[in-house]
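[job 4417] fold queue: 2 targets
>>> target A
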Amino acid sequence: MKIAVLFGGASEERDVSIASAAQIIPALRALGHEVFAVDTAAGRLSSAAERKLLVAGVAREPPSIAAIDDIRARSVALSPAAFEIRDADVVFLALHGGVGEDGRMQAMLDLAGLAYTGSNHVASAAAMDKDLSKRLFRSVDVPTPNWLMAPVAAEVVGAQLGWPVVVKPNKQGSTVGLSIARSSQDLAGAIRLAERFDREVMIEAFVAGREFTVGILEQTALPVGEIVIAGDIFDYQAKYQTGGAQEVFPADISAGDSALMQDYALRAHEVLKLGVYSRIDFRRDHAGHVWCLEANSLPGMTATSLLPQAARAAGIEFPELLRRICAGAIRTR
């Protein structure tokens, strides 16, 4: 097949997207596919440009807002013609954040009649919107931490959520713009940080405890994984720097807890109407209660990413994972 791998773009998660593409492209070529690389900020890449771009790893910090604005100003138009992908049998979305994950890219590909990986534009938009996602989780009895949307007085936050709280952009991934406000004095600064990345800001009750994740592939929940972190949150550095976190697949938990998280993950996946694959993140508090944090419609595919690790724990190696994802894109077109 001819497969166009879309990645990069003008997103705070650009580096993560490039790292995903660096894993996906050679693996697809090894399967015998004709693969061409497309940076959605620059268009279809030559072989030389592809080699130069894909050797970079993920930096310790996401690109600055100024750097993203510069990339956006130089970006090609958002269209299949500009990307030169009309001849692709499948478009593999290695995009993360922004236009690539919030439904806009998916809507463009739908209008062009192209088969693509991941979820459709409606599901992608719903998953990116944390406020909407959490409302939908609760509609199918999936517990999620209490939350408020800014602007809201610190006194109300303290009374309804308690301290500390997690403050984050409503539509952003990879914990970009996320911080913990430990008291009312921290709240305004945390909101200002989140507002740099999104006009809507969520304030969520902090759940102290252990962090878990469940991948979904073809409507089946993969083995539960645990992310063991040194700090309070699984932040950008912990996610993408080698040694930033210890990831255990399958997680060392009871069969009952594993089954519960897998059930919640499937419910979350289904209520959002996500596609062939996704990843759902959880925390379990010290009392043993499980809380769903968010859904990822385009989970990472880097060397340290969680979905490939979950698939491997189920006996599915990376090339087979990619084959199933591509087959699903054609099947659900």
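>>> target B
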Amino acid sequence: MSPQTIFSKGNFYGLPAFLEHDGKGYTAIVAGASGITGAYIVQTLAESPSRWKKIYALSRRPPQSALLGNVEHISIDLLDDPQDIGSQLLERGVKADYVFFAAYIQPPPKQNEGLWSDAEETERVNVLLLKNFLSALEVSQSLPRRFLLQTGAKHYGVHIGPTLTPMEESDPRYLRERNFYFPQEDILWDWCKKHNIGWNVTRPGFIVGAVRDAAMNIVHGLAIYASIQKELGRKLEFPGDIAAWEAEKHLSSASLIGYHAEWAVLTEGAENQALNISDDSMFTYGKFWPVLAGWYDLAYKTPKLEAADFQTVTMPRSPPPRGFGGPGSIKASWSFEGWAAKPEVKEAWKKLKDQYGLIGERDPLENAKDYLGIVDIDVLGPWGRSISMGKNRKLGWHGYVDSYDAIFEAITKLEEMKMLPAFLGQRQSPIHYHGY
């Protein structure tokens, strides 16, 4: 194995240096560039202008901040006709050595059902996004060396019930429920084979980042909850049972996803590989809850213990993605989405918005299913979400971030973006574990 050069940057350790690629002047397209991971991929590439001379950032919405000189934003709706998309790319002279596809649309859920309940529409619209974009690349005659498609840990069925664990890239597909990642992968593989193009598929877990008005962001919802509880003078309560408190749940920092995406496409041995990406940091909500409470100078509560305190939701698929046994079940004494509808909660948020000059296109409490429903899914699930990074290690990836540090950094950035009240700069309490 050839020697590698790695470096650390802030809270991120073991990052690849790519000395052999410096000065190459590559070009890249990032589709979905305003999303929670697309924005970070753009940022990662833009920080190395000798390696990436031009990055075309494609999205419907404009970028959230000023772009570096090697980034050009192009406003494109990937649901448009591929001929029109391709013509736009051709007119702008877009040519890419590498493509990063992080575009995603979350359709509204079915009435009175969960965030991801409309699997059929989710598949239809997201498969169409990818098909249109691939066709547009043909129209514009911009065929890359490597195409990276970001999917996620829902590939393994984490949203359906207990999975095979740890989750590994070679795990079989769970076919008892629609999953748009599967047709996306198949379409990409066929397209790349047709054009003799290398590919990557990356699979992060629940994502930690700071992007304006990105709904699929557990950190924003958690921090909103903590901020309002602080304003109301209440404790940081935990809605799940002991199983949810103790379950290991690996998270994925959006910054680390960006570094990993660059590494994947520039690593010869990673060509034509699906790759997990997590912080590689041990994480449970039980261990994190006292930490979050300390950041906001709050007392906290541990899970309730009596069965009568919980409502049980049984998942619809049996056997679950682990391949045997009954369906998964979730126990909740309350929900973040339900909490967001309380009058005193809404009033406290309005007060915080006025006091701190908070901004945003969408009010998170009025869109609670997007902003707080995602927190319910992450926090309440009692089954583990251990994401194996073994395959990445064997290929030479060494990136790491402590998930606590990633969350703290994301909250700080969200405060700077005026999406959260500026509480983290105030007094913080030492960590206190219950019973010690």
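[job 4417] complete. Note on B: The first strand starts at residue 6 and ends at 9.
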